[in-house]
Amino acid sequence: MFELLKIELYKIFKKPRTYIGFIAITVVVVLMQMGLYSDGDSWIKLVLQSVMENMEIHDGKLLNGYLVCFLILNTLLIQVPMMVTLVTGDLISGEANMGTLRLLLTKPISRNKLLLTKMMAGLMYTLLLLIWMAFLSLFVSMFIFGTDDMVYQKSSELVVHLYKDNQGDDIFWRYMCAFVYAFISLATIAALSFMLSVFAENSIGPILSTIAIIIVFTIISNMNIPFFEKIKNYMFTTHMVGWKGFFNMKSNADNEPLRGTIYNLPAILRSGGILMAHFILFTGISMYAFRRKDILS
Amino acid sequence: MKPLNKIFLLVIAAIGISLAALSQDAAALIKKVKARMEVVNDYQATGKMKTDVTFLKVPLATVNVYFKKPNKFRISKEKGISILPKGGVSVNMQNLLQENNFVALDAGNGTAGGMAVKIVKLLPINETGDVVLTTLYIDPASLLIMKATTTTRENGTYDIEMSYGKWTTYALPDKVVFSFNTKDYKLPKGVTLEFDDGERPDMEKLKNKKGRVEITYLSYEINKGVPDSFFK
């Protein structure tokens, strides 16, 4: 299986399209960092204008690596799934298109084993893409902008102030949790495009279909229309933003936010569970369909 | 002169004399309170700050508080970003009474923190300053200011309530509570998907538009010198 995995990874990283995601992420992150570095302070003041009418914010660095990373993830984690599909949507259909799938299955490997190996290779690519994004958006931002408390505005109703002070860092661990969660989200997308790839004979179909599904579901998830409110919970895109839940704190009876806590961990776990259920469902359908697939090319 | 006019003049004179007497009483009381505070030239204190503002979610913070005569005062979080109410927190009792550019008027008696107090209103002589009126609630026995209400042009009205204990000798409080009005908070429009973790704003609090910051002092270092660089 390990040998098979190595071959699949070799095939993935031999294709130029694999690097499109890495290049796109690098360009977007570097551009955002440059923009924020040159004029981020005035932008932050504009965003926090309403708060600054009542409160004075001083000392420390408002625009620091933690906040920059949050802003980047907020923008990028909607687009990164599309980069994932470029590779995972091609894993089966690409072979079918090139006519190598039938040849591949003449080898003494079960269909399930081949499928799971391809899936694992796709997940490893996804993980590498995420690690690259985490490195650029978090670690490079920390290096350029430094670290400090993180103040960010939730679109619901409040400004959350997470501390990195003499009592410790209450932010970094949240990022680690957020990246683990982001991997579950991206794995779900990978499984979706992989499943569509099983049914297709060329790569364009599954890649575009996955992107279309993400766009449509994201638009519906973003609409505050009562009709859509009912179906939102069944869409995996609604749960893909669960990583943001790690950046909110619980409060005690005196309404005092508590460091080191998560506001609603069960809600995050539930959303993570829904994503994993989608992942299992998509992988299950892929296996079922691939076993029965009449491979003609 | 008609007898009626004489009576009228007498009444006016009596009111004037009693007002002057009251003003003198208030000024004398303020003088005593100031004298009690004079022993403190500077201090460096640490405390725990609790922020209770509806649209803010800020955990308990350790803060450093610095004061130096005549009117240098600063509060900052031990490390990191400080979020403080505009104007209010930067006012302390030493600052309020440091300069003699106000007129003190006796406004009778009242209660503050369950204690009988004398109420004194301070009217600033300078009409262009930010402070329009300050009302002090002074315990005449201990000569401590228990509460102050300050109305400003720019930052509304805020109340400062003080409780004393360990540092009463220096007229320094153990705990200070700032209450202030918050302006309309405009909710930002979400441009990206938000995770619904079930948190909803407290509508009652939003309606009240009241904010509160509590500082509980843990230690004071009094008259040991505070460098000017601490106030920059």
List the helices and strands and how they pair.
The complex is a heterodimer of chains A (297) and B (232).
Chain A: H1 2-14, H2 18-47, H3 49-52, E1 55-58, H4 65-88, H5 93-98, H6 101-104, H7 111-145, E2 150-153, E3 159-162, E4 164-165, E5 168-169, H8 172-199, H9 204-222, H10 226-232, H11 236-239, H12 265-292
Antiparallel strand pairs in A: 2-3, 4-5
Helix pairs in contact in A: 1-7, 2-4, 2-7, 4-7, 4-8, 4-9, 7-8, 7-12, 8-9, 8-12
Chain B: H1 3-37, E1 42-52, E2 56-57, E3 61-68, E4 72-77, E5 82-85, H2 93-98, E6 102-112, E7 115-124, E8 131-139, E9 144-152, E10 157-163, E11 175-181, H3 203-208, E12 210-222
Antiparallel strand pairs in B: 1-3, 1-12, 3-4, 6-7, 7-8, 8-9, 9-10, 10-11, 11-12
Written description of the protein model:
The complex is a heterodimer of chains A (297) and B (232). By secondary structure, chain A is mainly alpha-helical. Chain A is built from twelve helices and five strands. Chain A has helices spanning 2-14, 18-47, 49-52, 65-88, 93-98, 101-104, 111-145, 172-199, 204-222, 226-232, 236-239, 265-292; strands at residues 55-58, 150-153, 159-162, 164-165, 168-169. A two-stranded antiparallel ribbon of chain A has the order 2-3. A two-stranded antiparallel ribbon of chain A has the order 4-5. In chain A, β4 and β5 form a beta hairpin. In chain A, α8 packs parallel to α12. Chain A is elongated and about 70 Å long. Chain B is of the alpha+beta class and 232 residues long. Chain B has three helices and twelve strands; from the N terminus they run αβββββαββββββαβ. In chain B, strands 4-3-1-12-11-10-9-8-7-6 form a ten-stranded antiparallel beta sheet. The longest helix of chain B is centred in the N-terminal third of the chain and has 35 residues, at 3-37. Chain B is globular, with a radius of gyration of 21 Å. The model of chain B has no long low-confidence stretch (mean pLDDT 81). Classes of the chains: A mainly alpha (297), B alpha+beta (232). At the A-B interface, β1, α4, β3, β4 and α9 of A face β2 and β5 of B. β3 (159-162) of chain A pairs parallel with β2 of chain B.
